[in-house]
TrEMBL record:
This is Transcriptional regulator, PadR-like family. It comes from the Bacteria. Pfam families: PadR. Residues 34-98 form the Transcription regulator PadR N-terminal domain.
Length: 121
C-alpha cells in the first residue's frame, strides 16, 4: 500500500514538472524581450534567465534568438574586440512594442488564472 502511494506521488510530481515546463516554454520569449533592452550575448542571457528561475538550455535559447531576430524583434552585432568574438542581441523598437503587448497579455492571463483558481478552491 505504501509503495502504491509513493508511486502515485512520484507520477504526480513527474506530471507537474512536465506541465510546468510547458507553462515556462511560452514565457521565454517575453523574458528575452524584457532582458534584452540592454545588449547581452547569448551565454550571459542564458545564465541570467536560469538565475531568475526561467529554466532554459542553450539548445532552446539560441534557435529562439535567431527566430526573434528573423521576426525583427531583436537585432544582433558581433563584438570582436575581445579574444573571443561574441554575438550581442538587443531588442528592436518593434520588439519593445511586442514586449509591451505581451506583458499586457501576461497580466490579463495571470488575473484570469487567479480568478479561476480562487473560484475552484
Amino acid at each position: 500500500m505504501v509503495h502504491c502511494i509513493v508511486t502515485i506521488m512520484a507520477d504526480a510530481e513527474e506530471l507537474i514538472l512536465s506541465q510546468a515546463q510547458e507553462l515556462r516554454r511560452g514565457t521565454v520569449v517575453l523574458a528575452c524581450l524584457a532582458l534584452l533592452e540592454a545588449p547581452q550575448y547569448g551565454y550571459a542571457l542564458l545564465v541570467t534567465l536560469n538565475d531568475a528561475g526561467v529554466t532554459v538550455d542553450g539548445n532552446t535559447l539560441y534557435p529562439l534568438l535567431r527566430r526573434l531576430e528573423k521576426q525583427g524583434l531583436l537585432t544582433s552585432d558581433w563584438n570582436t574586440d575581445e579574444s573571443r568574438p561574441r554575438k550581442f542581441y538587443r531588442v528592436t523598437p518593434e520588439g519593445s512594442r511586442v514586449r509591451t503587448g505581451l506583458v499586457r497579455e501576461w497580466e490579463d492571463l495571470v488575473a484570469s488564472i487567479a480568478r479561476l483558481t480562487k473560484e475552484n478552491r
